[in-house]
Amino acid sequence: MKIDIDFKNSFNVIAGPCAIESYDSLYEIANFLKGLGVAIIRGGSFKLRTSPNSFQGLGEEAIKYLVQVCKELGLASLTEVVEVKDLQNVFQDIDILMVGARNMYNYPLLKELSTVNKPIILKRAMSATIDEWLSAAEYLQINGNDNIILCERGIRTFETATRNTLDLSAVPIVKNKSKYTIIVDPSHSTGNSAYVPAMSMAAVASGADGLIIEIHKEPNMALSDAKQLLDFDSFRELYKSIISLKKHIR
Ligand code: PEP
Ligand code: MN
Fold first, then answer.
1. pLDDT in tens, 149-202
2. Number of structural domains found in the chain
3. 8-31 residue pLDDT tens
4. CATH code for the domain of 160
5. Which of 59, 161, 179, 212 is deepest in the core (most CB within 10 A)?
6. Ligand 1 atom closest to Cα of 101?
7. Which domain holds residue 68?
8. 99 CA distance to ligand 2 centroid (A)?
9. pLDDT band at 2 (very low <50, low <70, confident <90, very high)
10. Residues with CB under 5 A from ligand 2 (ion)
């Protein structure tokens, strides 16, 4: 399904599991999100994990599940693309592509993505300055793609209380220095579900154009990033607060 998602004029909350684990679990999550009004479902397929012993994702099978579930429910699909070779065939039915933090410096991948006619989310690398990130975004435009969304997902600092340090000042700085839209990932930045609601609200207040949040029906059972996943009840509550805050600061 071709869905025209307009990040420039509407605030979008993207949500879904860190990794797609099965068709049924993805369907249940997506159906729950649809009920709340979420229109874009994220789900990891090829997972770039720090350890080769961690769950690597279901790959092409996961993409088939994501495309099928989104088609059935009338939602837009979003997953991370990791290799140039897969772009034309494996990812062709995905609505929104994401470049993960570990690939922000993968210039051949960025150049190839500049030929794609769909929205692309570019995550900030763990140690990238805002200027390096903006330069990486320029690679995505080389062949005319102007549907680029930056995503602040936390940077590496001396602080160990959170997985990364969420640099919310990046939101007004990116808006000041460029025309890109920018969303915030409170899940990978904090790495802890207890801090996701507060930082989501702070991101809305900072002027972000959207959020990308990881959820799971049973976070304790998740195959990746269990600690940072919101369960359905917590996400429902947060989603209501986000929508209400957004109305007040419009
Ligand atoms: C993700 O969003 O699935 C992810 C792996 O995040 P990051 O690239 O920011 O680590
Ligand atoms: Mn994750």
1. 999 999 999 999 999 999 999 999 999 999 999 999 999 999 999 999 999 999
2. 1
3. 788 999 999 999 999 999 999 999
4. 3.20.20.70
5. 212
6. 8
7. 12-248
8. 13
9. low
10. 18, 225
